[in-house]
Amino acid sequence: MSAIFGCLTVENTECNAESMLPWNRPYGTAGEAVFSCGEASLGCCVENLSSGHVQTESVVGNGNIHAVIDALLYNREELIAKCGTSEGISDAELLLEYISKFGCRALKAVNGDFAGAIYDDKNHTLTLFRDHMGIRPLYVYCNGRTIAFSTDIRGLIALPIVTTGISEEWIYRTVAGYDTDTLLVTPYENIECVSPASVMIFSLAGDEIKSSTSEYWKLGSRKIKKDSDSEYITELRNIITDAVTRRLNAVSGIVGAEMSGGLDSSVIDVLINRAGRDCIYYSWSKDPSEVEYADRDERLIIEEICKQEHITCNFSHLGDTYEEGVAEVSRKVGINVSEAGSGDFRFAFPPGSNTYQIIYASQFVKSKGANVIFTGHGGDEGVSHRSNIYEMYAHHEYYRYLHYLWSVTRGKSRIFRTLKKGLTNIAESKKSLKETYLNWFESPELLKEDFARQFRIKQESALLFEFDPIGYIKSGGSRNRLDNMALFGAYSGVRYLVPFLDYRVIDYAVSIPRYMYAYKGIKRYIYREAFKDIIPKSLYKLNDKEDMSLRNIPVRDNWQDEYALRKREIIEGLNREYWSKYLDFSMLDEHLSKGYPTEEEYDAEMRHLKVALKCALAQNLLDKAKKTC
After folding, report:
1. Is the pLDDT score of 353 beyond 60?
2. Is residue 452's pLDDT more than 60?
3. Contact (Cβ atoms closer than 8 angstroms) between residue 356 and residue 472
4. Do residues 118 and 203 both lie within one domain?
5. Distance, CA of 324 to CA of 156 (rounded, Å)
6. CA 207 – CA 472 distance, rounded (Å)
């Protein structure tokens, strides 16, 4: 949960990272420091999650090497043995020593969540690197004469030498409804994410900065073949269990864990409990005493798991709010927040940070003494994997594709109907799975025609989720939730741990034959079979569940007044002088003049408000990061 930040510049003004401190402080409260040497400045806010190896120096290194590193390592023993160093060395110091001895390409063998920056003041080079799956965020600004980086994107924008604005391509894609949570892109010009599993090297060369980027690891670069289905199943179970165990061993004290009643989080919860670790289990679903059960209610599964494992799940409650906790942390670290308005605008949250249940969960487990919280995120993306059977065909497993269809076809003319079912699936899948993906809030009608015309010639991508997990992950499918967990966890003093995105786990899962995810008529087959003996039968057979019983939450008496206030805050939050170049305000003004929309108007109004909110948040962050501290 440490934060790192800094800059390198050829400008005459000194590169001082002090202004980046407030936005990065929530990520680490065990110590902070900023190292400066004129052309470069590095800073770190440290958090220690293990009592066995405490980091005492925020900026590490010696001689001409200075480094700031955010790292939680899961194969410390292996790295210590390779480096021949002491057991008490901190994760940051160990990772720097490992890189110094074996080079950045050796990061391929490091199991951990990490991001780092190394400055060599003799050779005038700055090296940035990030973990395999991008668990830890790291943003970078580059304009050819200045390089700046930060764990929190608002730290970059707060740096005086950073000049940026909202990206017009981001505006177009957001309003038109295309995917904006790509692997590298941010809402801001000249600011992007450091690519996962990569190393960026910047070097001073006269009055400019030269750069190069290289990958040290590639997801799914090999195909895994085993002699039997049981071997695939056993290996998946072993590697997931090991990923959970390594994360438990890496941290001290009580841990927290999300409990959703789904296959992913439930397996992690059971494994934590059977490892004998004290754990606080938390569900985003509302307490059953406050909200009635629904059909296929996930809380019924949660109750079965709790009964089986003799554990207790803590549910969220009606009226829970995160704002007081975030405001308290903000004031404590030196960020001024306004008293009025919704949390979206008060705290200058990024436009993609909308999963506030993450804050509820992390604040709750923190209040019970936990410094980390386990999540099942990453399972759907490729490990438990919600596969469409078309995936087998797309990966040229034609026999297995037909075998599956045969297994779910009965009655007369079975051969003919199997072939017909396969051809229908191929045709429908090519149309639905490979067509351009649009968000539910796509609102191209809000765009000014002259502006939109510049971008329409670009070929937009499909979602890929159901048939190409490697492509989905490489396109940034996991990024939004990871960014939110890092941000919201920081404001609760908690780090999220993601066992399914252990690089060994996800790489194994996407590299085995695709039929293992749709076999014998069972979707997600290999994952279900791997943990069949430790989960309830109802969970093993589960195909769908109620979404946290939201339909049964009672409607507040004043909901129409709240809706009207929220609508006004969003639309009036847009700077019309700026946004009139891009947006047609006539429809937004029409929404504003009305109260609650009619049933016919509701879908369009909600779509428009969603994209207006994202645009307003991008503007709000830009304004407040520059002015708040």
Report:
1. yes
2. yes
3. no
4. yes
5. 25
6. 40
The neighbour count for residue 319, using CB atoms within 10 Å, is 7
Collect all residues with Cβ–Cβ distance below 8 Å to 412 and sequence separation of at least 6.
none
Cα 464–Cα 468–Cα 470 angle in degrees, nearest 5: 110
Distance CA 129, CA 390 (A): 36
Question: Which two three-digit tokens encode residue 479?
Answer: 């990024």
pLDDT reading at 557 higher than 80: no
Cα–Cα dist 359/182, whole Å: 23
Can you tell me the mean pLDDT for 124-131?
Answer: 97
Percent helix, strand and coil across the chain, each rounded to 5? 45, 15, 40
Assess whether 206 and 131 both reside in one domain: yes
Angle made by CA atoms 502, 258, 328, in degrees to the nearest 5? 105
- Residue 571 to residue 574: CA distance in whole angstroms: 6
Tally of CB atoms within 10 A around 323: 14
Q: Which residue has the tokens 């999300």?
A: 258
Pairing of strands 495-497, 191-193: unpaired
Among the listed residues 464, 486, 467, 483, the one whose alpha carbon sits nearest the alpha carbon of residue 475: 464
Q: Contact, 188 vs 96, CB < 8 A? A: no
Among the three residues 523, 552, 581, which one is the final residue of a domain in this structure?
552
Query: Could you tell me the residue range of the domain that residue 488 belongs to?
Result: 229-321+351-383+475-552
**11 pLDDT exceeds 80?**
no
Assess whether 156 and 283 both reside in one domain. no
**Residue-by-residue DSSP string for 298-350:** HHHHHHHHHHHHT--EEEE-TT--SHHHHHHHHHHHT----SSS-HHHHTT--
**End of a domain among 531, 552, 573?**
552
From residue 95, alpha-carbon distances to 55, 78, 197 in Å are 12, 12, 15
Q: For residue 110, how many other CB atoms are within 10 A of its CB? A: 25
175 against 320, higher pLDDT: 175
Element (H, E) at 600: helix 599-627
Q: Looking at the whole model, is its pTM more than 0.90? A: yes
Q: pLDDT > 90: what percent of the chain?
A: 77
Number of folded domains that form the chain: 2
Q: How far apart (Å, rounded) are the C-alpha atoms in residues 291 and 552? A: 6
**Given the structure tokens 């050819």, which residue do they identify?**
144
CA atoms within 13 A on the CB side of 577: 0
Token digits of residue 319: 């009226």
- Provide the H-helix boundaries in 16-72: 21-24
The structure tokens listed for 467 are 């048939």
Give the β-pairing of 40-46 and 31-36: antiparallel
CA dist 48 and 371 (Å) reads 10
Phi, psi dihedral angles at 194 (to 5 degrees): -65, 130
Q: Which residue has the higher pLDDT, 320 or 350?
A: 350
Q: Where are the beta strands (DSSP E) in 37-177?
A: 40-46, 65-73, 112-120, 125-130, 139-142, 146-150
> Among residues 272, 128, 155, 285, which one has the least CA distance to residue 209?
128
Q: In angstroms, rounded to a whole number, what is the distance separating the alpha carbons of residues 24 and 36?
A: 17
Q: Are residues 28 and 132 in the same domain?
A: yes
- DSSP β-ladder status, 255-258 and 372-374: parallel
Q: Using CA atoms, how far apart are residues 591 and 62, in angstroms rounded to an integer? A: 61
Cα dist from 326 to 335, 348, 492, 497, 558, whole Å: 11, 11, 7, 21, 25
pLDDT for the residue numbered 132: 98
Q: Which two tokens stand for residue 122?
A: 């003799």
